[in-house]
TrEMBL record:
Species for this entry: Actinoallomurus acaciae
Any single Pfam family the record assigns to this protein: Amidohydro_2
Protein name as annotated: Amidohydrolase family protein
Chain ranges of the Amidohydrolase-related domain: 3-261
SUPFAM superfamilies: Metallo-dependent hydrolases
The keyword Ion transport is annotated on this UniProt entry: no
């Protein structure tokens, strides 16, 4: 089974399914989203969507009504394509700890979702993820995905590794190969047995090759669609791996085990 470990709700969702079909991807992890860059028709409209993303990555616009709208989009996508998408739910990191635990129970477990993410703590504030990890642990060890690219810092990645060691039942996935801090990310994930590294939107092919070489059992093929492309993301993994066990692990077997699908 080929599993894209990182995708966001598209508008329309059928366009995402078409991309997965073209890439030969069986299933994709699907996160809710507020920005929709795929809606953009010119530079001005893309700037508007990316401004929403920038606010989100810096901890702005973290409101209950925006979560509800994004959750409704996710629910609709999962209902329309239950055999293609694996839903993850998110919670606002600014909530008090008891409300985070309640939100995880209600919005993730209660809706039958497979994990939590993609969490986007503001730069320098990765410690805000800890209440979510504690709640994930209390729910039996739900996987948690955290944004890894800019503006996430190298110090944030180190904080995440420290937190991962505190909650060894919780698989912690760093997305986008850690962005510009990818060498730090590879090293930290290699040294932290419950951390995983998702490989989308790598700036250089060599980063993907090295990550798989260093941590072949905990690297995950992902596209970060619509920001990345499933066809290109799969081709990158296949370019830097030989046909066989390691490639199969990266393209889906590791994700299937992590999600309880194998």
């Amino acid at each position: 089974m080929i599993i894209d470990a990182h995708g966001h709700v598209h508008d329309p969702v059928a366009d995402h399914v078409a991309l997965l079909d073209e890439a030969g991807v069986d299933r994709a992890v699907l996160f809710m989203t507020r920005p929709h860059p795929e809606r953009a028709t010119d530079l001005a409209s893309l700037r508007r969507e990316m401004a929403i993303l920038n606010d989100r990555l810096h901890g702005r616009g973290d409101h209950a009504d925006t979560y509800q709208a994004a959750a409704a989009e996710l629910d609709a996508a999962l209902a329309a394509w239950p055999d293609r998408f694996i839903g993850f739910g998110s919670v606002p990191l600014g909530l008090p700890e008891d409300r985070i635990a309640a939100a995880v129970e209600r919005e993730v477990v209660g809706r039958g979702l497979r994990g939590i993410g993609e969490l986007t703590p503001p730069p320098g504030q990765a410690a805000r993820v800890e209440p979510v990890l504690r709640a994930a642990d209390e729910q039996g060890g739900l996987p948690v995905v955290v944004h890894g690219s800019a503006p996430t810092t190298a110090d944030d990645l180190r904080t995440l590794a420290t937190l991962a060691r505190r909650y060894p039942r919780v698989p912690l996935v760093v997305s986008q190969l850690g962005g510009p801090n990818w060498m730090d990310a590879v090293e930290l994930v290699r040294e932290t047995p419950t951390m995983y590294l998702e490989l989308s939107t790598a700036s250089i092919v060599f980063a993907v090759r090295l990550a798989i070489s260093e941590i072949p059992e905990r690297t995950l093929f992902g596209s970060d669609a619509p920001y990345g492309d499933p066809v290109l993301a799969r081709a990158t993994v296949e370019r830097v791996t030989a046909s066989g066990e390691i490639r199969d692990r990266v393209l889906g077997e590791t994700a299937a085990a992590l999600l309880g699908l194998s």
